[in-house]
Design goal:
globular; 5 strands; binds tetrahydrodeoxyuridine; 27% helix
């Protein structure tokens, strides 16, 4: 199921701009073990952009995904609700967020739109509602 939704025209940051920020953050990834660099960029209601990249560790399980680094950056500096998050990998598109990141994203942004490159589809990006990616989240 791929329920592509529209990017609201009132948002002053374009999907291409958000993807470009995520692409630039792929360059900041620290991924010497998986060699799978990822960048993420999230957009808030105030049109702020916060980014992240994956940060691996020699103790592999301590790895942090790009999306969760972006959430940490946002949480430290903004109270504005999250509207969208772009996720880009060096070697594949779309790079869907992992299950752990879906759980973390829905905690802060249950209605976030997830923007992904689609290399198979004439480069037209995918924009997927969180509810489709993660319909039954754990909530205590
Ligand atoms: N990774 C992310 O950064 N985000 C995802 O949603 C999936 C996986 C990272 C974790 C690890 O550093 C590498 O990609 C390979 O799993």
């Amino acid at each position: 199921m791929q329920n592509n939704v529209d990017w609201p025209s009132v948002w002053a940051v374009s999907p291409e701009q958000l993807l470009e920020t995520a692409r630039s953050l792929v360059q900041r990834a620290y991924a010497p073990y998986s060699r799978f660099p990822v960048g993420a960029a999230l957009l808030t209601e105030k049109m702020e952009v916060f980014g992240g990249c994956n940060i691996e560790n020699g103790s592999y399980g301590l790895t942090i995904c790009a999306e969760r680094v972006a959430i940490g950056n946002w949480r430290c500096r903004s109270d504005a609700p999250i509207l969208a998050i772009a996720i880009v990998a060096a070697d594949i598109g779309p790079c869907y967020p992992c299950g752990a990141c879906r759980q973390v994203l829905q905690e802060f942004a249950p209605d976030v739109k997830v923007l992904l490159e689609d290399w198979e589809n004439g480069k037209k990006p995918l924009l997927l509602p969180m509810q489709d990616l993660y319909p039954y989240p754990f909530r205590p």
